[in-house]
Design goal:
The protein is mainly α and 204 residues long. It has helices at residues 25-48, 51-58, 62-69, 72-79, 97-112, 117-125, 129-147, 152-171, 175-178, 182-197.
């Protein structure tokens, strides 16, 4: 009696390093480029940042930067794409919203520090029209809805409070501001924001 030949399963497939659980290789590359770009733009500004320098920081070929982002201008625009991850403060009692808002921004800046994309945007907005326009868009489309209906001019004053805090504490590092704890800042800032958002009375 002869035995039938064993079934040959064929070649064993080799796993694709870019597939499987976890981020895809292309996603990791894109994230590395964006992280390097944000650091470069923050340190050197738009004009002095080069695609070659960003690629070197990300340890990839410059052609890969162009492949994923097309141009330096498009890369800069991607670096300015910021989600503030604001909670819906409309469900928070009105008198508690200013403190919650200030605390949210402080938590973000205290954890991300100089690498935070919003601080990059603040640095760039002073000299770059594209960054300034993006800053206005972020506050009008994300901060204002989170607080509920407020007048646009008041939203501008709220923005000036928050951005002034970021400028003095994290960019200029003024000692009188940096030596305060986050909760001390919340205590000092919340009443100012509250006075801006307070409903107007007839005759105001």
């Amino acid at each position: 009696m002869t035995s039938s030949p064993a079934h040959d399963p064929g070649p064993v497939p080799v796993p694709d390093p870019g597939s499987g659980p976890g981020p895809r290789r292309s996603d990791r590359t894109r994230a590395a480029i964006l992280d390097a770009a944000r650091r470069r733009f923050a340190a050197h500004g738009f004009e002095r940042t080069t695609i070659r320098a960003v690629a070197a920081d990300a340890d990839i070929d410059p052609s890969m930067v162009m492949r994923y982002y097309g141009s330096k201008a498009q890369l800069f625009d991607a670096a300015l794409d910021i989600d503030l991850h604001l909670p819906d403060l409309t469900a928070t009692p009105a008198h508690e919203r200013p403190a919650a808002l200030v605390r949210h921004f402080l938590h973000r800046w205290e954890h991300d520090g100089a690498d935070d994309a919003l601080l990059l945007l603040l640095r760039s907005a002073v000299t770059n029209d594209q960054a300034a326009r993006r800053m206005r868009e972020i506050f009008s489309t994300q901060v204002a809805p989170a607080l509920g209906p407020v007048h646009q001019d008041r939203m501008g004053l709220v923005s000036s409070q928050l951005l002034g805090l970021a400028l003095t504490r994290y960019l200029l590092r003024i000692p009188a501001v940096t030596q305060l704890t986050p909760e001390e800042i919340v205590t000092a800032y919340a009443p100012a924001v509250q006075s801006i958002l307070a409903p107007r009375t007839p005759g105001d």
